[in-house]
Amino acid sequence: MNVTETDIAIAEALYPILVECARSEPIRTLTYGDLLATAKSRQQDDHPVQNAIPVSLGRRLDVIRLFIAEQKLPNLTSLIVNAGTGEVGAAFGKNPEEAREQVAAFDWDKVSDQFSLKLAGLKKSAEARARPKLSRAEAKDAMARYYQKNRTQLPHGIERKRDEIIASIMSGATPEDAFQAASS
Fold first, then answer.
1. 144 sits in which H/E element
2. How far apart, in whole angstroms, are the C-alpha atoms of residue 144 and residue 97?
3. In the chain, count of helices (H) and strands (E)?
C-alpha cells in the first residue's frame, strides 16, 4: 500500500477514538460518519482530518489495519459499521461479534507506542516519496556535504558503501537516512 501523509494524519486521529470504543462497557461501535465527526471535533486544526469524507475512510483505516496485521492484533476496525446495516461490510470476512470480543479483551495500552513508531516510519517513507528525486551529481554533492560535516561520527569503512548511499539519496532518502541505512 502506498500510504500518503493524509492517510497517516487521518489514521492517527482515528486510532485513539477506536481504542476508546474498545474500552467502553459495553464495547461501542461507530458508523463511518460518527467516527469522522468525532475526529473532526477533536482535531479542529488538522487540515487533512477536517477535509476528510466518510467515503474515503476505508483507505485511511487501511493504515490501522496494516499495523494490526503486522502485530497480529485483534481487528480494531470491527468497531466501524455501515450506517444503513449497523454492521461491518461483507468484505470483513469473519464474525464481527467474535472480532469485537477479542478487541474488548485486548490491552491496547501495550501497543500504543508501537503504533506511534509505525506511523513515524510511514511518515518518513511518505516524505521520502514526496521529495524530488536527485540526479547522481546532486546526490553525490549531498553525500559529500553530509560526510564532511559528520565524518567523525560515521563508522569506519563507510566509504565502501558510497554507491549504496548515493543510490539511496537519489531515490529520495535524506543523506542522514542513507548513511544510517548503509551503516546497519
1. helix 136-150
2. 57
3. 9, 2
- State pLDDT tens for residues 155-172: 999 999 999 999 989 988
* Whole-number Cα distances in Å, 10 to 14, 98, 179: 6, 27, 31
Closest Cα partner for 115 from 80, 78, 71, 72? 71
Q: Work out whether strand 80-81 and strand 30-31 pair parallel, antiparallel, or are unpaired.
A: parallel
- The type of residue at 57 is L
Whole-Å CA distances, 166 to 54, 76, 130, 152, 170: 42, 41, 18, 20, 6
Q: For 65-118, what is each residue's pLDDT tens digit? A: 999 999 999 999 999 999 999 999 877 888 999 999 999 999 999 999 999 999
